[in-house]
Amino acid sequence: MPAKKNLVGQTFGKLTVISEHPERTKHGQTRWVCQCDCGAEDVVKSASYLRTATVAACGCVKRQVSREICLSRTKHGQSHGRGKSGTKLYRAWTSMNRRCDTSSAERWSRYGGRGIVVCDGLKNSFQYFEKIVGQAPTPKHELDRKDNDGNYSCGRCNHCLSQGWLNNVRWVTHSENVRNSSKARLITYRGKTQVFSDWAKELGIERLTLKNRIDKLGWSIEKAFTTPVRKQTT
């Protein structure tokens, strides 16, 4: 039989041989104690494995690949959103990601197009999103950001902590969402500022009527708000 080659000190892939193991394989092969680049010690491998493995390692490479596949599936809702794809919560999650990540999305210009992003915690895991946001109080509630110029952030994940982002996501009614929208038009009258819809409700005048008075007829705010609506006669 050829003399056994001493592998101590040699490196194979990510493994460095540090000593010979006292026990042999069931086929009589010498086993070697190794240390992996990832920090794992006392990794026992046979000489044949060390010489023929494509990437000799303690198993960390396989675990990393599995983790990346899992994250990729999670990112696209293939794992943690299973069974919930038809729910309001899942639709809110996918819509949030799409308008921030996809330039072809309908409202991209108001979100991703102006730099709004989703933190990694909310973006990569539907289960985490569900835990942070919770179910909508009613079917009519909509997903919203507290700060309309801020990102969709949970305030807890490593991404948020590294950036100093606070929790900036919540459920609101449609009127609250419109009020917080960057497109909402605010009107200040006698020291009070509100959107058109709130003024219309307070004054008892149709929102479209107020808008037409100011934009089409060129009325002042005072005249538009104080002129009684002419009642139609039959």
Class derived from helix and strand content:
alpha+beta
As a percent range, the share of strand residues is 5-15%
- Judging from the principal axes of the Cα atoms, what is the shape? rod-shaped
How much is the radius of gyration in Å?
31 Å
Q: Mind describing the biggest β-sheet?
A: 4 strands, antiparallel
Q: List the helices and strands in order.
A: EEEEHHHHHEHEHEEHHH
End-to-end separation in angstroms reads 115 Å
Q: Which bin fits the share of residues in helices?
A: 25-40%
Q: Reading side by side through the largest sheet, how are the strands ordered? A: 1-2-3-4
Parts with pLDDT < 50 across at least 5 consecutive residues: 72-79
Task: Give structural notes.
By secondary structure, the protein is an alpha+beta fold. The protein contains ten helices and eight strands. The chain has helices spanning 47-52, 60-75, 88-101, 120-124, 126-133, 158-163, 174-180, 196-203, 207-216, 221-226; strands at 11-12, 15-20, 31-36, 43-46, 142-144, 170-172, 186-189, 192-195. β7 (186-189) and β8 form a beta hairpin. The N and C termini lie far apart (115 Å). The model is unreliable at 72-79 (pLDDT under 50).
